[in-house]
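Worked example 2:
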Amino acid sequence: RSSCVTGVQTCALPISEHDGIFQRIVTLAKGRTLLAKALPRFPLGSAAAATLVWAILRNVGMLLGGKNASNNPSAEALFRAAADCVQLMNGVAVEGTLGAIATGMSVAEAKQQLAPLTTASSTTSALISALSAALERAHLLEMSPTTHKAFGAAFGMVFNIFDRHAATAATRGGGDSILPRDLLRALMHHCSEPQKARLKSHISAMGEQ
């Protein structure tokens, strides 16, 4: 079982041997499609399902980078399968999931592999679905950044990434950028008052209703 379950700090450790195997599989579209079809067949809420979800989300850069950033149906299928799986997780698994996605997005952003979360592309939308699902599931389980330390650390990373992307989009006048409503709602559940004010300023700047 992946040590990612203990939180964002553990998730940030160097890629494990199992992630190496995962990366070899998802190098090809056929491998991504195979895993997307396999994930729903794991027992609902099982550790095996959670482990695969974490691997998917720790490796978002590999799935989104370069030409994959705008249109990659097999990567989209993986993200959407992960989103469906998250909706049945317990609190420990959800905490690990947010840690995995926070780590994955941070690494991808550092390598310039992460398309802005304000990008109106189907692949980015699928990633946002997985992120939103984790945040909504945490809210349903009454988890918060103040009551769950590792969840709070991961949430801070995720919020800061979205905040930067939204600020950049607003500075450029919006254009083709969007503020994903599902993600805005999911973030709001866990925001501090200053964080809520930041999101509202982005909404105002981009004219979102």
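Residues 1-15 have pLDDT under 50 and may be disordered. Residues 65 and 78 are 15 Å apart (CA to CA).
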